[in-house]
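At this stage, I put together a protein sequence along with its fold in token form, as given directly below:
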Amino acid sequence: MTIQCLFIEDDLDFLEPTSVLLSQHDIQVTPAPNLHQAHQKLKEQLYDIIILDLNLPDGSGLEFLEKISTQYVIPVIILSADFQNKSKVEALKLGAYYYLNKPIHIDELVAVIQRTLKMTNTPAHLLNRDATKGAPQWIL
């Protein structure tokens, strides 16, 4: 099964090659270069996991994490160049499953994604994503 990932990252020189490498591991990436687009994409589709940068052009990744944690049940992995321990602790307190620093090796990122999905039982795993049926349907 292909993993659906929303990747919120404004550095396109990092986002694009990382997305290609993730696709080689059966992870379909939907890019969002800012928080506005991320909110829109969350309204349009269900995701298995979110990869979130903290420093984005239109706001704080930590504020976004806090907001979506009350609206969605989707595991979030922070991937940031911010090495401050305060940011790491706050992200984990707000519900992030992992906090990884850039640069990162693709095998480590894939392993963290797979481990996170094993640790969680996200509703997206219970969905039938057959596009011919329109909106996702719960599988009982």
User: Anything to note?
Assistant: Residues 123-140 have pLDDT under 50 and may be disordered. DSSP finds five helices and nine strands in the chain.
